[in-house]
Design a protein that fits this description.
The complex is a heterodimer.
Chain A: H1 2-17, E1 32-37, E2 63-65, E3 71-73, E4 81-82, E5 88-92, H2 107-118, E6 133-138, E7 143-148, E8 187-193, E9 197-202, E10 215-220, H3 224-232, E11 238-241, E12 252-266, H4 277-286, H5 289-295, E13 301-303, H6 324-330, E14 334-335, E15 341-343, E16 346-347, E17 349-355, H7 359-374, E18 378-384, H8 386-389, E19 397-402, H9 409-416, H10 434-445, H11 449-466, E20 469-482, E21 485-486, E22 511-512
Parallel strand pairs in A: 1-10, 1-11, 17-18, 17-19
Antiparallel strand pairs in A: 2-3, 4-5, 5-7, 6-7, 8-9, 9-10, 11-20, 12-19, 12-20, 13-20, 14-15, 15-16, 21-22
Chain B: H1 2-29, H2 34-39, H3 48-58, H4 64-76, E1 82-83, E2 88-89, H5 90-125, H6 130-143, H7 147-161, H8 180-213, H9 217-224, H10 229-266, H11 272-281, H12 285-313
Antiparallel strand pairs in B: 1-2
Helix pairs in contact in B: 1-12, 5-6, 5-8, 5-10, 6-8, 7-8, 7-10, 8-10, 9-10, 10-11, 10-12, 11-12
The chains are: A alpha+beta, B mainly alpha.
GO cellular component, one term (chain A): periplasmic space
Protein name (chain A): 4-phytase
GO molecular function, one term (chain A): peptide transmembrane transporter activity
Chain lengths: ~525, ~325
């Protein structure tokens, strides 16, 4: 028995000993690009939620976005048309498009994709994005008609979802397509080793033109430090790194890409302290946003004053925040002997929760605490798990974050609409303002661009006056990109990015210098 | 011997059953919502209705005993169930990953056994000598280092600094297949780190045990008969010392499995380590139960093997289950 074990051990040792250098070392000038991210998707099925905002490399939506995030036709020949009542959207499909398996794209595939998302039996995470969609039907082989429950102007923005080939009778939750997807996109999947890498090969018959490189390898490295170390070893052409680890080194350039991803303090309207307008305005005035960008974000961010990013055409100019001490003095919050203000026996103190696993939100919470202290407001930061946070959101302040660059309606409608007060993560602080509600409603129903712009202007002004949130910073995603890569065109990124929607959104046009 | 194995198997069944029930009870005590974990960042834009539909699809809101019986029933049909955290059949998750974890643990165990036997015996031979003192100091030092720290340090020195080995992954990022030499090259650092972090126990044990047996009568008698030093050391002293060592291997195996989780995470190896962490965070009972069952089965099998090896090494030992 012992001898047997010994033999096995020797055999195993022999396996480790025979190491040879890899065939193609890092830095070799092949025309396959290697990118790395922490964001490994759970599956690659657009129906379940993969790449809902487009740029998914493997799939195409009816529409796509260009480098300014403006919509352009993709699988649709032109931008889909909207009927006068705003409730019927018609898309004509491009002809001659084939899936990676050679099958031709038809209207049935589009109908199948959208119907699958709406099916309650399917574990789709983007079903609530299509709340407005009543039904989708094919009209002939190349026309798709979407019928909406109510007029919804930004609907075209939801048509970036990747189109699957029709898979009759398949359980979408267990479908093979989750791991080995078939799309129409610039790359087809060669292999996916979960936890390691996704290997993509160029789709030579891509309707948008053959990719300028032969393939892409997406390496998944979850740990920030390890990813940065492997980047330094020269393994990747482009890699997302944590801001504090993003220092340029030989042959690489740092890109700090603006995002619509904001962080802020949600202040519940019910609390005796956070419910007081003067306190909310004072915290808003007391926070040093520039110091947070420099100190907490290592420069990879921008000050935030509202939920619409400064890069958006709907953004209002930064409001004046005033002086914290003056605001509190005028409202009758007087300074006590211990440096904390009080009014009618109520101390100016509240708890600020943050998810303990998120070090960025923790540092922001501590920075807010320190800034508020100077204004005489005592904040107790408390790091918790989401499960502990959830039941307390209606009473205690919370560091929250979200944001999308695509349409001002997307997140804000639910986050600040009174209809969603107390519903999960939507409007946990129960903010309610008739002006805000009216502006948000106008913004989603009006088809006149000038009217929409005016509505979101009113919305931002009202938020600045009511301060249901103290917006702190917009994040920037930081990437290291090898200097010999040509064609990198960063665009404003949403919160969700990884394989899709990262700096390599247009990698099918990248080349080597 | 067949009887022993049979009796052990009969004993293993209730252990495995109890382990799986414990897993589900632990999961029930966890406040985590698997649907929220599955949704990831999308949870902040999802309606409660959408989340509830997903939970209903999985049946995770059913009473615990219903979930457990369903799981057990599926298991009897050879179906390990549905992993909510990976959104895939549990069997597929494990099939894709268990091999790599077993390879890592297997090689490491081999390296640790051989290394600690050789070094420990040599250290014991010249007790208080330079090698002995060096080995002991190193063992105590390593024992106090967290293995993820050791792993990051190894990456900094051997991957970044010297460039001898890759910093992570299973194969070269550019390679398209799985090549034995490539995998071996990638496993050198993880195996070394895991082996070094697990070796002190074994090494110190072998050293003490051999040192003790060097003073026993049969060893002294062998020396007195004028046998060569090497023959006495490896043929007589080490042989006596080996017996308790076998037990140590059996009982230490779970620790090796635990260490592999950390090492797999740092070296981004696609083994069971990362998925276990993910499954635990997302209350994914079926996947956790399957992983726990496999680990328990491996540990039980290892114990049985060491006991059998014991009887082979020392005919005086009889085991009766």
């Amino acid at each position: 028995m012992l001898r047997l074990m010994g033999t096995a051990v020797v055999a195993l040792l022999a396996l480790t000993a025979c190491s040879t250098p890899a065939a193609t070392g890092p830095g070799s000038a092949t025309d396959t690009f290697v990118v790395a991210t922490a964001g490994e998707p759970d599956n690659l099925n657009p129906v379940l939620g993969y790449g809902a905002d487009g740029a998914s490399l493997i799939f195409d939506g009816l529409v796509a976005r260009d480098d300014r995030n403006a919509l352009s036709p993709a699988l649709a020949t032109d931008l889909p048309t909207v009927s006068a009542d705003g409730r019927t959207v018609t898309a004509r499909l491009r002809t001659g498009v084939t899936f990676h398996d050679g099958k031709a794209l038809t209207a049935d595939d589009v109908v199948f994709t959208y119907r699958s998302i709406l099916d309650p039996k399917v574990d789709s995470t983007i079903r609530s994005d299509l709340d407005m969609l009543d039904k989708v039907t094919a009209s002939g082989a190349d026309t798709v008609v979407f019928t909406l429950k109510y007029p919804y102007t930004p609907f075209l923005q939801r048509l970036t979802i990747g189109i699957l080939p029709e898979l009759p009778g398949q359980d979408m939750n267990k479908s093979e397509i989750n791991r080995k997807p078939v799309g129409t996109g610039p790359y087809r999947v060669t292999s996916w080793t979960p936890g390691d890498k996704l290997v993509l090969a160029a789709n030579d018959t891509y309707w948008g033109g053959k990719p300028t490189n032969s393939g892409v390898i997406v390496a998944f490295v979850a740990d920030d430090n390890v990813r940065a170390q492997r980047a330094r070893a020269g393994e990747f052409d482009a890699v997302e790194v944590a801001p504090r680890l993003a220092t340029a080194f030989g042959g690489y350039t740092v890109h700090k890409v603006p995002t619509a991803d904001y962080r802020g303090v949600m202040l519940p309207m019910n609390g005796p302290v956070t419910g007081d307008l003067a306190i909310r305005r004072a915290v808003n005035a007391a926070v040093d946003r520039q110091a947070m960008v420099t100190g907490v974000l290592a420069g990879a961010g921008d000050p935030a004053y509202g939920p619409i990013p400064p890069t958006s055409e709907y953004a209002a100019p930064a409001p004046t925040v005033g002086d914290a001490a003056t605001i509190l003095d005028e409202a009758g919050w007087t300074l006590g002997a211990d440096g904390i203000r009080a009014r009618n026996g109520q101390r100016a103190r509240f708890t600020l929760m943050y998810p303990a696993s998120d070090s960025l939100r923790k540092e922001l919470a501590l920075a807010v605490t320190a800034d508020a202290k100077k204004a005489g407001i005592e904040i107790t930061p408390e790091g918790l798990t989401w499960d502990a946070i959830d039941p307390r959101m209606k009473d205690d302040a919370l560091i929250m974050g979200w944001g999308t660059p695509y349409d001002p309606d997307f997140v804000s409608y639910k986050l600040f609409g009174s209809r969603f007060a107390g519903e999960g993560y939507f409007n946990p602080g129960s903010y309610a303002s008739a002006v805000t509600d009216e502006a948000l409603e106008k913004g989603r129903t009006s088809s006149d661009p000038a009217e929409r712009k005016a509505a979101y202007q009113r919305f931002q002004e009202q938020l600045a006056a009511d301060v249901p949130w103290v917006f702190l910073t917009y994040l920037r995603h930081t990437y290291l990109v090898r200097d010999d890569v040509a064609g990198v065109r960063p665009r404003v990124e949403p919160h969700a990015h990884g394989v899709e929607n990262a700096i390599w959104w247009n990698i099918h046009t990248w080349t080597r210098k | 011997m067949i009887k022993v194995i049979g009796r052990r198997l009969a004993f293993a069944l209730p252990v495995l059953l109890a382990t799986s029930i414990g897993m589900f009870l632990l999961g029930a005590a966890s406040p985590m919502d698997p649907a929220k974990q599955y949704a990831g960042a999308a949870v902040f834009t999802m309606s409660e209705e959408n989340l509830a539909q997903i939970r209903a699809n999985w049946g995770v809101d059913d009473p615990l005993y219903v979930q457990y019986l369903r799981w057990l029933g599926n298991l009897l049909h050879g179906d390990l169930g549905w992993s909510t955290s990976r959104h895939e059949m549990v069997g597929d998750v494990i099939a894709a990953r268990a091999g790599w974890t077993l390879l890592l643990i297997g090689i490491t165990l081999g390296v640790v056994l051989i290394g600690s036997l050789v070094l420990g015996t040599l250290a014991a031979y010249r007790r208080g000598g330079l090698l002995d003192r060096g080995v002991r100091v190193a063992a105590y030092a390593v024992q106090s280092m967290p293995s993820f720290w050791l792993a990051l340090a190894a990456i900094a020195v051997f991957a970044i600094g010297l460039g001898w080995f890759p910093a992570g992954g299973l194969t070269d990022v550019r390679s398209t297949g799985v090549d034995v030499a490539d995998v071996a090259h990638h496993l050198v650092l993880p195996v070394a780190v895991l082996a070094i972090s697990q070796a002190p126990w074994f090494l110190l044990f072998v050293r003490d045990s051999v040192a003790e047996s060097l003073r026993e009568d049969h060893v002294l008698a062998a020396r007195a008969r004028g046998l060569a030093g090497r023959t006495v050391l490896f043929g007589h002293a080490l042989r006596t010392a080996l017996l308790p060592f076998l037990t140590l291997v059996g009982t230490h195996l779970p620790e090796l499995v635990g260490g592999s989780v950390l090492v797999e995470t740092v070296f981004s190896l696609p083994g069971l380590g990362a998925v276990s962490v993910h499954a635990a965070l997302g209350s994914d009972f079926p996947l956790l139960a399957a992983i726990t069952l496999i680990t328990t089965a491996v540990v039980l099998a290892a114990n049985l093997l060491t006991d059998l090896a014991y009887t082979a090494a020392d005919p005086r030992v009889r085991i009766d289950g």
